[in-house]
Every structure is written in structure tokens, then in C-alpha cells.
Amino acid sequence: MFTIIDIETTGSNSKSDKITEIAIFKHDGKAVIEAYSTLINPERRIPFYITELTGIDDTMVADAPKFYEVAKKIVALTKDAVFVAHNVGFDYNFIRSEFKSLGYDFNRPKLCTVKLSRLLIPGKTSYSLGKLCKALGIEISHRHRAEGDAMATVTLFEMLLARDQGNIIFHGGKPGLLPSHLNSNLSPEVINALPTKTGVYYFFNEHHELIYVGKSKNIKSRIRAHLNNFDHLKAIELRNEITFIEYVITGSELISMLLESAEIKRHKPYFNRAQVKSGFNYGVFSDFLIDGFIHFRAGKISGKNHPLAVFTSQNQAKGFLSRVTEEFDLCPKFTGLDYTSGPCMRHLMQHCNGNCHQKGQQEDYNARAMAVIKSMAYDHFSFFIIDKGREENERSVIKIEKGKYMGYGYVSDTKLHDNIEVLKKCISPEEDNHEVQQIIKGFLKRNTVERVIPY
Predict the structure, then answer these.
(1) Domain architecture of the chain: domains with CATH
(2) Integer Cα distance of 72 and 61 in angstroms
(3) Model confidence over 171-185: pLDDT tens digits?
(4) φ and ψ at 131, to 5 degrees?
(5) In the 8-state DSSP scheme, what is residue 45?
(6) Confidence of residue 27 (pLDDT cuts 50, 70, 90)
(7) Is the pTM of this model over 0.85?
(8) Three-class SS string for 379-447?
């Protein structure tokens, strides 16, 4: 079952703007079986430029129902149905935001006719609703009104249904996007047999080529999400190419992140290309210069320099320096953020006393700078991270030696007993790199592990 939906709003921001009109056409895959449309009082003024576009003004919505008055009807119409719209994220996010303000979690599977059109009707110069409908000979009555645009989307959707020879929308004549119907190469038994545990999963195509590597705290749930994802063209392409699925249970979320990173670097799967390219190539560095003060700078990582922290862009690195400059009361001239002559900008804004560059202030200033360095380092020089294992009576072990990632392994609870030699022997060696360091440090700051054992 499908619900083809269009809305009009007071603006483009789903968090701050409101819905002024909604139209819903319930479709069983053959024809529209129910229709509903109404103006909605947004409880705020409608901007002039929106009225110019849609024709909806304040007087038209003054006596219209408010969203909470039509919410129950929307829930009933969309229940057990796929939410279909042209540029679905816009309509879906607005409706979800309206429900969130009422304390209700609106959640529906989504299908975007823009993405679907790109796949099934390739080669068009534009996939906006107006231009696409004109190219396909679909008439739109009352453009930029919810009912007119939704009805045009219905016609487009039915055209897409007719072209859907690859069973993207339907399979076996059954409506909806149930996991067992999403990919003819994957049987329901394969999907149902997937574990709900933490680990890394692998997608292969019909030629047994690895095309994607992912991680999840719930492998089954994450793979089902892949198979239900119609929001992006690449997601649809990936879904259609999956022929075999393999997985490795890690138990530990941190190990799943480390393993995913290593596997992507090792195999460079086609659908992970963006992750391969977006490495942590920029860092924050410290220098103890001739003036006696500790300086920080952002720059590109090379084989010779060793960053305190790593980032995916120079802007991220500078953003970090900007935050610590404020938090630790540092001088922007010493953090590479102010290259002007004379007093620094923070001094001009009366946020510092201007003495940071004077020799008498070195000890106090450098103590604050060292606190920044310490905040970016591990709490221990060499240590083991102990966390959940693959089974109940097992624990995962990650080894850090002299600040370097050495690898991971597993040990039985009966052999653990904080025995350093047992922990060392269970480790399988892995490569250390800047990305791994960022993953481990970030995880330890945001999450709690069972134990950290220094040695």
C-alpha cells in the first residue's frame, strides 16, 4: 500500500516553518482508493513570497483546522503504507516535525519519485516535478497547491510502476517494501537468519565481488534498512546489486568500527569509495618555539609530522583550535588563528589581559596549553581496553602500546583475571593509522567500556 503525499508550507525549514496544506492519495498499486486534502492553519503569518508562489494567504487558512486537528486522519491514512513523494525528504521531514511537536513519533517507510525517476527514466535534463511532468506529458492543474502537485505525482508514480521491470517498487504483485520482496537475489530465509548482534557485514555482487562493507550494533536491522532505502540513487543501485551477504560478529562496537575501517582500506569496495577518499588528512600540531610558549597549528598530515588529533578537513581542525582557544583561554596568535600585528583579537574584545606574550606569563600559559595536549591524548601510555565479547562468557581486548594501536582479540572470562600475558597473547596484530587513532580516542570520550587496564 502507498500514500502519495504533497504539502505546502510557510518556508523551507522543517524545524521552524509550518505546513499550510496537505493532500494524500492512498494507492493500492493499481489505482487510488482514497483521497484527502485540506488547508491547515499554521498558527503564524504566511510570508508574502510564499503567497506569491502558492496563492495561499493568511485569510485562506484563518478558519482551517490546525495540524493537531488533522493528525489522527494522517496517521490512519498512512498506517501500513509507504510514504511516497517527489523529493520525499522535504514532505516527510515536515510531517515528522509536526508530529514531533505533538509528542508522536511518526515513522513510515519512504519512497522518492525523484530518485526513482532518475533510475527508471534516465537522461532527463531536470527531475523537478514541473519540468519532469512537462517532459512526460503529465498535466498539473493548480501547480504549487498540494492537491494538484500530489495528483501529478500519482500519475508519475503510476508511470514508474509500469516501467518497473526490475521489481524495485513491487515484487510478486504484493505491495510495500517488505524485506523479503526487496531483492530477488535474497530470499526471506537469508534475511531472517541474519544476527541481531554487533559486527561488520559484507555485500557481494553476482560475480562474488565485494561491493560494500558496513558496521552496526544490530546487523539484521541495519541490512534491512539498506534494503528499504530508496532515498538515494546509489542506495537503490547498491540494493539491486546485492547477491550474497556475509558478516563477522565482533560483540564490541569499537572493534566493529576498527574492523570496518581496516576492511574498507584493504578492499576499497565500490560503494565505499567516499569513505576511502575522506580520510583523516589534516591534523593539529604543537610546537615549542623560541619564544618559550607552546604554539598550536592546523595543517596537512605528512609522513614526518605527528598530529595530536586528526580531522577530515582543515576547517574542522581550525574549528577545534577555535574551541580550545576559548575553553582554555589561549591566545589566537599562538593557535594559528590570528596573524595580525599588535594585540590579538581576544584582547581587543577584552577577553584576555594581553599578557600572554610576555615572558613572565610563560609558565601559566603553557600549563593551560599542556591541558589541551593532555585532553587529546590517552589517559595511559600503554593499556588494554576490555569490553563485550561475541558471547556472554567472552570479552574483547584492544591493545594500545606506547600510544600505538596494536590490534584486538578475544579472551574467555575464565582466563581473563587481568593477566597481562594472557591479554597480550590473544591479540591479532592490526595496522595503526591516523583514522584508527581518531576512532579509538573519539569512542573512549563518548562511550563507556567495561574496563581499561594499564600496563
Answers:
(1) 2-163 (3.30.420.10), 179-277 (3.40.1440.10), 282-375 (no CATH), 383-454 (no CATH)
(2) 19
(3) 433 344 444 345 667
(4) -70, -35
(5) P
(6) very high
(7) no
(8) CCCCEEEEEECCCCCEEEEEEEECCEEEEEEEEEHHHHCCCHHHHHHCEEECCCCHHHHHHHHHHHHHC
